[in-house]
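Throughout our pipeline, every protein is held as a single compact record rather than as scattered files. Such a record has a labelled line for the sequence and another for the backbone structure tokens. The remainder of this section carries one protein's record, kept here as part of the documentation:
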Amino acid sequence: MDETMVLAEVSGSIATVGYGLAAIGPAIGVGIVVGKTIEGVARQPELAGRLQVLMWIGIAFTEALAFIGIATAFIFGF
């Protein structure tokens, strides 16, 4: 095998690794959002409905990062 073949093989795997790393951030973000919502409901149960709506909005924004990550992976070399 010559060096160009090995280099192409490594660069082909980097997009997959990059998306895997990009998915860690939204996963942590969703965990924090849900955890803080549960904490807020435990402190003030009368705000449960309002906090749940805000939680879903937060999850939607956080998951947008995962979609950007997968789009970037497709653009730059999946």
The chain has a mean pLDDT of 81. The chain has two helices and no strands. Helices lie at 3-43, 48-75. The two ends are 23 Å apart (CA to CA).
